[in-house]
Design a protein that fits this description.
701 residues; Heat Shock Protein 90; 7 strands
Amino acid sequence: MRPTIRHILTITLAFTALYAGGTNGPSASEKQQMIDSIRADLSMARTPTERIRMLTDIFDLSNDTSLKDSIGSVIYDLALQTGDSDAGLDILRHLGNLHVKEDSLLAVDISRAQKFRPTPNRDITVTFLRMLRNHNGLRYADETTRIHRLQQLLEISNANPPSDIYEKIVLLHALCLYIGNTSQGEMLIHYMDKLEELITSLPKESIPLRSAFYTQAAIIYRQNDDYEKGLQIDRQRLECIRLLEQGNAKAGRKYRNYDAHYYVIYTHMLSNYPLLSDEEVEEIYSKIHSLINTNDLAANTEAQSGRAEIYYSMHHKRYGEALRLIYRYKDSSYNRPYLNILYKLMVECGRQTGNKEALLEGLEGYSNILEKTLKTRLQEKTQELQIIYDIHELKEQNLKQEHQADKTRTLMLMTGTAILFIVLVIMVFMYHRMRRLASNLKQSNNDLQTEKANIQKTQSALVKARDEAQAANRTRSDFIRNMSNEVEGPLHVINEYTNLLIDCVDTGDKPYLRDFAEKIQFNSELLMNLFSDVLTLAQADNRTLAVHPKKTDIRTVCDNAITVIRRHVKKNVRIELAPDMPSVQIDTDPQRLSQILYQLLSNAAKFTEEGSIILSYQALPAVNSVKISVTDTGIGINEKNKETIFQRFSKLDSTSQGVGLGLPLALKLAQLLGGHIELDTTYSQGARLILTIPMTIAHTA
């Protein structure tokens, strides 16, 4: 970023603190005591207005940015709740100055301001905050982006300027900033004058916008050696501060003053001593000294820069004293932006006192600065000419576009006339055609009415058939449920009597009979599982099967499934969870997931005579899914049967068992969880079925 515009941004942002303000007088410890006292009294506040006033006093007294930020947010919330837009918008302007380097926070402040009802004060506040964002846009952009943005702003300003005055102000303010980054010449002054014209047309309440503009304008006019205009702007800045003080006094804000800002403005005004009368110089000098005696910041600045004393000595032609002060303070960092003025004054002092050494040093220093300034101005002029060329090019493009638009309008008019004629011809033709069709319309209507009646009958029949089908499904489900309940009791009795028989026989016969008892219990369990599977499948078909997602550990579900199915596995078969499986948490229905794994493991156990059944899983967060695989060393599944196995009671060949309901039910449940099951056709040592489900599913009843 150019040093000039960086200087403007720094000073401008410092002076937007007219709305962040500054306090002086009490020491830090005294301020803290006052803050603590006000906090203690907060509980006694009887109305939101009184609470806002007390919080505002804390805001004004505090130098802690984080505290001011939190207090400001509380004031805003109270103001929004009570409809006190003046207090709410005022604190948002202060918060904007706190957030001046945080573009995202400024965007939040703008959004907050827009929540108040539309008023001129709201428009002024939003515009003020947007102007602060303009500074950020320039500060954080690289040079290529700045040039591109300047071209965009010029195009909008010349081709499609906004009609709303506040939008115009934001646009012109941004344009002045970006031009100022390129050139400090006549073009910038031209747009600054246009911006001033807009801002001065606003009501007097627009102090924030006036203050921001005058602060920026004073620097620009002074750098362009327009001292008279700069002095005029300084007077306007003083008026803004006086209006602010009146507003603060009216609002009861007793802990705010602007002494530091008065000092800076008066010092700038005193630098224009040739344009001031003796009375004005004495008045300004007296005010500066009063400020130095009461304000630490003013006192420190004057002690480091000495500019007020230098200007005052020059006005009274005390050149020797002025020269001594210039030598003393010219190398101070506080005076770096003012070296051109100091060297110029040194030249004058050298001439008036006959001090050739001072004259030579002043001329050399001033010459170096002028040389740098001329180089800079030459570059600026070149860039300014380029901008002017771009503007003229834009205007020429706009004229061409307007000319093309005129040609297009003429062509459209001619085309429209031709189309109108064609339409008239078509309408005449259609009129005669409609008359011919009118005779058939009545019959067509009758046919349509008849067709409508037939459709309604068919629709009624379809609705009836649907209702009957749904009733049949419900009846089937109820029947299966009742049968399951009816069969469950006898099966339990059979199992209990089987165990009782074993207990009653001799010890030598028990192993033999226990084998039979286990087979009876196993087949009883198979029968109950069959009823359960049929019932679950019916509920899935009827879409009445509920899903209750919750946090589920896949490893726990897998371990439980293996434990349940282990006793159904043949002796020569090893069933286990793959080693090193991590604990993975997903959001799913653990009951439905357990049912799916039970069916997949049961299917593997059914067709595996020896070898192993391995359960494994893999989390894929990037696609929000989990893959769970069941791998066995059984008879395997041919690739051509990869769809058939999911059909109910399907049989792959005449020699093998049917798959029953297990895999179709598992697929239904997987789809219910938002997933699917597929056969891994690349695995040839048996069969591998892969279940894929999402890591997170919607919560449903």
